[in-house]
Each structure stands twice: as C-alpha cells, then as structure tokens.
Structures
1.
Amino acid sequence: MEKPSERIKSLGLVLPPAPPPAGLYKPILVVDQFLYVSGQGPVMNDGSLFTGRVGDGLSLEDGKRAARQVALTMLATITTHFGDLNRIKRLIKTLGMVNCTPDFGNQPLVINGFSELMSDIFGKDHGVGVRSAVGMMLPGQVAVEIEAMFELH
Amino acid sequence: MEKPSERIKSLGLVLPPAPPPAGLYKPILVVDQFLYVSGQGPVMNDGSLFTGRVGDGLSLEDGKRAARQVALTMLATITTHFGDLNRIKRLIKTLGMVNCTPDFGNQPLVINGFSELMSDIFGKDHGVGVRSAVGMMLPGQVAVEIEAMFELH
Amino acid sequence: MEKPSERIKSLGLVLPPAPPPAGLYKPILVVDQFLYVSGQGPVMNDGSLFTGRVGDGLSLEDGKRAARQVALTMLATITTHFGDLNRIKRLIKTLGMVNCTPDFGNQPLVINGFSELMSDIFGKDHGVGVRSAVGMMLPGQVAVEIEAMFELH
C-alpha cells in the first residue's frame, strides 16, 4: 500500500492551511507512541470555516462534507507538525461532534465523512478506530468538530 | 470474588444482542493493555433501542434504566469480541452522555445506572473509574450513550 | 521555576474545598504514569457552585471566571489525593465543556480561563496540552465542567 502522504496525492486531495490554535492549547501532542490531536474544525482551502447547524439550514450531506473537510484539516495539522503523515500507524479513537438541532439523529452518518477519508488514507484496518458521534454546541458555529488519538510508528 | 462472566449469571442478568456498528468504526479496539469501547447506546433484549429525552417524556428513573441498559450493551459488545469478560481488569474512564433538555441537571444520577452495574460486576474498586456525565444531542434519539476505556489483564 | 504547589502560594491563589463525587466515580485515577481526572465543576471557596448559562444571563467573562475556578477546583482535587501538586509533569489533554446557548460561539475563550491558570502553574510548555472546547448541557446547571489527563513524574 502507498504511504499516507503519497496516497493524499494519488487521490488528488488538497489539504487546507493548518489552522492556528483558537485558544491556549497545542494543536497536537506526542506522548510516548501516541499522538493526541485537539478538536479540529472544517477549514476550507481558502482558510474560511464551514459553518452552520445540521438540521437547520445544513443537510445531512452538508454535514458529511464538513466532516470530510475536518479530516483534511486534521491531516494538514499533522503534516505541519511532522512534515508528512508517514509516522501515523493507526487511528485509535475519534470523538465526532456535530453542530445540530435537538431533533437531528444522524450524527454517525455525518461523522462517516471523516471516517471514510481516514479509511481511504490509512486503510480499512489502521484507518478505522473506535468512535462516538454526537451533537453539541460548537465554537464559531462550525458545522463539525473532531478530536482524535492516533498510534505512531 | 466471582469472575465477571460468572457474576453476570449469578445476578441473573441477560445481555442484549451486541449491536452492529452504526457507522464506519470498530466497536472496540485493544491497544497494549487497554481496551477502548465506542459509544454504546441502550440496546434492549429484543434488539430495539431505548429512545427519548430525559426531562421531556423520560424521567430521571427512565434515564437511569437506559444507562443500566447501556452497561449491559457494552458488556455484550465486549463479550462478543473476547468470548467472555474475564480479560477486563478495571474500568478506567467513562464519558456518560444523556439526551436531555437544557434545564435537566441530574446527568450524574442518570449515569449512575451504568456505574452501579459496572461496580456490581467488576467490584467497588475495579468497577469504578473516573467519569464525566453530561447532556448532548444523541444519534437516533437514544436516551443515553456511553463510551469507556478499560484496563485488561 | 518554582514547584507547582509553591507557585500556587506565590500567586496568592486559594484552592476551594475539593468536591465530593456527585455520583459513583473516583475523582482521580492513576494508571501507569498518567493521571485521569473526572469532570470537575467550578467550586467556589465557600463550597457553592458557579452556575448559569453563558449567553443567557452569564457573559463570556463570567464563563471565563467559571473556567478559572474549575482549574482551582481540579488542583484542589489533585492536592487532596497526593498532598501537593509536585507529581504533575504536564497537562496532556483537556475536554472543556461550557453550559451555553446554541448561538454562543466563544467556548475557546471561556475555556482559556482554565488553560491560562494551568499555564501559570505548570509553565507555558508543560501546562498547555491538546484541548477541545465545546457546549453541552451540564449537571446542576454549572457554568463550566472540565475533564483532563496529566502525565506524572
């Protein structure tokens, strides 16, 4: 299988600019062989954020696109730190947070937008970990925010 | 003390069917001596989900019963993976998520339904870990969803 | 640099009483060289809780003060367990939860109240970790609740 950073190119994916922290925290932290990533929003290629509430203006498909963009944003954040993605061994854990109305119940399908991209890049085994996908109130009205934990080579 | 899977039988507990993933994730993942469990909903013995919002249709006691059912569902998920519960050494961490109204403030008492069952099965020391119990919007309108991390023998 | 417990004194900070658990969980748990801390609310020096919803009665600055008080509460909880704060090596991860209205979008600035105090006590490198700052429904209508993971010496 291709290495992750080669896979990004093969799939024709474009990583957005890695976002600066929105507060007093580190974007990522390495502890032993584990990589912790702060909650990432959906940064577009022009640096703007994908905002809105799913179930009130945004559709399920909009939300899924936002979650896919969060995945690209997270890969940009990791690439900015390490230079490439090749130290990532596998995804361990994802907390997928959707800005949605109380009546919206398809958070798992929204967060699949993130999970499918991770699976495409790191493979169906190492790109898929444990996950919760739930609804919250998110900063700056972003549509989706996701934090994750990876294992490193 | 009895082993956990024997304790389930002694207490006359019935585990519901382990739920298939509701999206692209693994129900559980083992990393070194740790077991990570994806967010679990309250699956009933007939395979249906315990749905509703606490504070709007569901009472505190309803919510607590849902949280207890999440514990049984999580034990079913773990049993399906390992064959029994005997590799579990202790519960480390619980994130208890309650589908509730903004004015409901007893999330800890709801999530006690999960914690009391874990304490019954794994003991008052090893069955009790750190915890947060908070309110969110949950997938499929389930009443409670809980993710957890355990240490393995 | 001063040791953390000396730094508390130098800064003239007063730790509130460590709160008893609000349900069936342990306030903190040590696993190998890691310290897991249960979700902590903002306990005031008289033992009462800082309650209210940011964006509806509480301002951003109120919320930030609540988050700072959560930091003091967490330090009280850790001090009660270990006798002092000197075993803390660094903050790894923070989940900052704000009781806010759906339209409030400055959760990161609220949680900075916690992060700035941690940075003051443990330093700009070891006191700053990864973080998510989001909105939820919180127990007892507390304004802010925060869970965290630290590395120990």
2.
Amino acid sequence: KQIILLPGDGIGKEIMDSAKAVLLAIAAEYNHHFTFEEHAIGGSAIDTHNNPLPEDTIQACKSADAVLLGAVGGPKWDSNPAHLRPEKGLLGIRKALGLFANIRPVKGFSPLLHASPLKEEIIKDSDILIIRELTGGLYFGEPSERRENGNAVVDTLYYKRAEMERIIDKGFQSARIRNKHLTSVDKANVLESSRMWREIVEEKMQEYPDVTVEHVLVDAAAMKLITQPNRFDVLVTENLFGDILSDEASVLTGSLGMLPSASLRTDGVGMYEPVHGSAPDIAGKGIANPFGMILSAALMLRFSFGLEEEASEIERAVNECLEQGYHTADLQIQNGKQVGTKKITEIVLENLT
Amino acid sequence: KQIILLPGDGIGKEIMDSAKAVLLAIAAEYNHHFTFEEHAIGGSAIDTHNNPLPEDTIQACKSADAVLLGAVGGPKWDSNPAHLRPEKGLLGIRKALGLFANIRPVKGFSPLLHASPLKEEIIKDSDILIIRELTGGLYFGEPSERRENGNAVVDTLYYKRAEMERIIDKGFQSARIRNKHLTSVDKANVLESSRMWREIVEEKMQEYPDVTVEHVLVDAAAMKLITQPNRFDVLVTENLFGDILSDEASVLTGSLGMLPSASLRTDGVGMYEPVHGSAPDIAGKGIANPFGMILSAALMLRFSFGLEEEASEIERAVNECLEQGYHTADLQIQNGKQVGTKKITEIVLENLT
Ligand SMILES: CC(C)[C@H](C(=O)O)[C@@H](O)C(=O)O
Ligand SMILES: CC(C)[C@H](C(=O)O)[C@@H](O)C(=O)O
C-alpha cells in the first residue's frame, strides 16, 4: 500500500514520525507492506514552492492508496494573501481528491474524562460520530467576491442534490452499523438549501427503515451537544455547520489532542489527520501529543485498507498507554507520568502485540 | 410610551401577562405612562389572519416606541409551506423594523449556577454580551432557490459594507462601556465576506483605541465558549454565526429560561424577547417561567426608554425572588419552592420597591 505523508507545519513533522513508526511496527507484525512518500503542503510548501498545494503533491496523493496529514498553518503565513495561505492547501487537497465525507468520532478516554469542561454525569457514555460534508457549500460556492466597488460582498452556498445524497447516505450507513440513530442537522426554517437537505433525508428514510431519524436545527444542535451529548449517535450535516459543530464537540471530552479524523470518498481512498492544529508554540520542542495522529493512522487502516484487527490493535495500545498513566504535556492523569513525543511513541510500540 | 405586545404562540401569552404586570407596577411606582396594544404574530396569526405577519401588526410596530415579543412556533404549523411558517413572522418583523443588532447578555444567577452542564470552576464569573447582526447574511440574501430542475440549490450570503460597519460599531461601543474587550468572530480563512468583516474590524480599531480586539474563527469560538467562557467580554458576529453561537452560549449557565434578548436599531426602537422558545408542551398549564420575558421588559426600559434605574429595579426583584428560593418547574434551587407563573410573578411584584 502506498501512503503519502503530508507532515505540513508546526508539530506536524514530529507527530507524523510517531504515526509512521507505529505503522511500520504494525506492518512487521502483520506482514503488510506499506511504502511512504513525503510531500509538501501548507505553510512549509509556501516556503519551499511558493504554493500551499504544489502540483506534485496533488499528483502523488491522486495515485496513492491513502494520505496522512499532520497539520497546516501558523502565524508566519497569517497575513499572506488568500491564495498563499496554508489553509488553501488543505481545502485544495480535499477538493482535488474529492474527499466529500469528513468523519470525526468523539469519544472520551476514561483516564482523561476528568479534564472535560462538562460535568461527569453529562459527558459520560457519550459516543458521537460526526459526519460532515467536506467539498461543497459556502466553502466552494461561486460567486465569492466583492461587489459594488467594494461596498458589498457575497459568498455562495451551493449544493448539487447528488452531493447531499451521498453524504446523507454515508450518515445512514454509519448509523446502521452503530446505534441506528441519525441526527440530521440543518437550518430548514431559514435556508432553501436546508429545506432540500431535509427533503432528501426524508426520502432516504424509506431506504433505511432500521435507522431512526431526528431533524435538529443547527442552533438547537449547538445547545444539545452541550446539554445532552450522550443522546447522539451519528450526526450528519453540511460543510460549514459541520465545521462549527465538530469543533464544538471536539472539546467536550476534554482531550482534543486525542481525536482523529478521516476524510473519505466512495472508493475507500482517504486522507487522515488529527483534529487539533499545528500548535506552532510548541513545535520542535518534542512535547507534542502524537495520539491524534496515531489514531488517525488507525482509522486509515480501518477505512481505507479494511484492516480492522490492526486498527483495533493500535487503539488498544494507545488506551493501554493512558491506563499505565503515560501522557503528554497537554493531558493530565492523576498520579500519571508526563513524557515527550518520542517516549510516549515508544510506549505505544511496546504495547503493540 | 407606546408598547406593542406580540404574545405569539405557546407560552407566549402567559409570560407576556407577567411582563405587563411588572411594567404596570413600575409605571405606577415611577409615575410613567405606558400604553399597551396587542397584535398577532407567528402561528396564532396564521390561524387568525392566514399570515404570520399581518400588515396591521407591522404598522402598529412601526409607530410604537418598543415591541415585546413572547415566542413563535409550534408543531401545529411545522409542515406548513415556507411562507406560512411562524418564523416568517419573526424574520419579517426584524427586517421590517430594521432591527439589525441582536443583543444577548449571558450571565448566570448564583442560585441556579449549579444546574450548568459545565463544571463550576469553568462557568463561574462568566459574563458575555453577544451581539449578532440580525438583518443580513444568509438569512436574507438572494438568490435563494432551486436550480437545474431541482438538482441543485443555492443560498446567498450577502452583506453591504455599511451593514457590517454599524454592527461592528455596536460591538465596539458595547465593549467600551463594559470590560473593553471585543471578540470578533468570522471565518476569514474561507469566506470573502469574513475577510471584509475582518478588514472593517481592523479599520475601526483605530477609532476605539481603548478596546482590545481578538479575531477568533467561528469554529474556534464554538470551542472557546465551552472551555473558557469567562475569557469573553463582548462577542460580535454576523447573523448565522451569531444564531449558532448565541444559542450555544445560552445553555452554558444552565438556565435558558432566564435569558432576555434585545433587537435594536440605531434610534432606540427595539424588540425584546426571551431567548427560549414557545414551549408548546407546557402551554396553558400555568407553569411557564416568565423571567426571560420579564427581564426582556427590563432591557426595553434600559435600551429603548433610557430608564436605567427602573430596569435595575426589575432585575433586582427577579434576583431576590431566586435568592428567596422561588423558582418555576424548569429550574432547580436547593431547598427551594417550586411555583407557577402567576405566583412567581406576584413574588416579583412584591419584591419591587
Ligand atoms: C483550516 C480550515 C479551512 C478548516 C475548515 O474550516 O474546514 C478547519 O477548520 C477544519 O475543520 O479542518
Ligand atoms: C426561528 C429562527 C428563524 C430564529 C433565527 O434563526 O434567527 C431563531 O433561531 C432566533 O435565533 O431568534
């Protein structure tokens, strides 16, 4: 299997090294052959190629079986013009690969749950899968421009019916293999696009009679994630709502640094990245938390390569590491041992097999 | 002063009666003359006028000094076509009156703070003023329609520069009379409208050198409201982001039923309504919490009539009521006394003066 590594900016390089080490150990253990090829993206690609998404990065990703991404962005490039911003690389690669389904599991780890901003009785037993449409909506709609001599501005929320259908299908299919409950989030009381979304959900319900469906308005969903996080199973929504709600959900468990994500298309090719950012303030210090990246590699094994056993093995090894009390500087465990990126990766490796 | 009452649907009528009683008591105490005129809006206006916003409601509101709104909506009208939905009345009256600034104070009440989903050390000392643009953006932009024979759909996020300027000014002015910190929320890494928004904030900073400004992306803001609610002072943002974030913020203190809101234009005319909805499930039972409505009336005295002392008097009376242990069914107070809408209104009246 050909895997493209896009470390990106900030702590991206350090955590990517960890994920690669874990994948090599898994390959040795289970007799798989993974090849890795590193390419530039984001701010570092702006520095080296004057382009946040160089053409050879796109080509390499297009012919790969899966892509691992570290993180992009940092203050260094914050005042760049729009086309020379690190995020352009991220948005560009999603679009170029057609990765329309962003999948984010939100589930706490018992040794870390005490760090949640929520009361324990609220957050405990929460296990949410957020599915966000990733290549449409306000992010890519045209026109997106100044008007009337700079005295007005317009962005466009555009969706094709087929784009809504495939992500809604993904929502139903995911609910079917989980707890069979789908929360569809829209703003149907205001937006025409949301009314079309809701119609499609209603149509699809017939095809998935085993899944119960609830329509929740995006503002109400933002409340309910906080007051009743354990009432969700799968949540499906469009791009911008998904951006906001998945980030909101990501802090509920109290350990953002642990969360992986997957961005998929229908044929199994996917890009995997941690939910956290590039953390420029701690880059190069050897203290970054590699778990979000390692768990993203596990999702790659599961979703792109169908290697369920290997994926679970990694997840178990990470869990064990926490149970043993090992954690990075961003986490706290009572009577735990705080260690750096390299050390904690070694412990994960020891816990494998 | 001419006040238009729009009770609307569900518990709207009950809580409006409470607010009116409190205003009459204040008028007697301070020798003011308030006249009240009731008009139809929302679902009940659909029932009586086949129109969620009858023309005479608009006219009455236009010539009034202020408007009090209960709540609109309910399952009865949920499957109506778009133009016969209760929300159309709400959106329509905002637009018709030009109420561009929605103001939502989010601050807990000590006797109720234990009900917050957040840990006490996280929520305590939080005092946020959310300012949301209310008459532009995706809510009103054209085109908003089906395309390509129903196989695509478009909504439009449109803002005039002047619309952004006036709400951003409101943000700075509000910060100036509070703790002098303004959080401006946008999605400038993706949206052209947000880039214009951010430019305007940067320009205005020169005019308000006493206010510190922080730009936060909407996804990051959704996180920070949960992890560090006490790091906010004034938050200003556009319509849809404001809808989502203000609802998110409204559950942080654990007592949604207490929160008031104001929707203003520059000349002081405003519409005041509680943050909660029409609660059709408990309508007519006499158990609704009238505090959000009563505190909205207090905001009316403050913002539209400049009656600061009278407004504070109401707020004090409500607070005292809670300190005395009185609460409605939606709230809990340890060793408190649960009472109905009428009774709790009487206690507020007793606490006045
Ligand atoms: C960096 C930004 C463009 C991106 C997005 O909004 O999609 C990020 O917030 C994310 O969620 O991956
Ligand atoms: C009812 C709905 C149209 C409205 C809005 O989205 O503005 C409501 O959620 C609000 O915040 O007042």
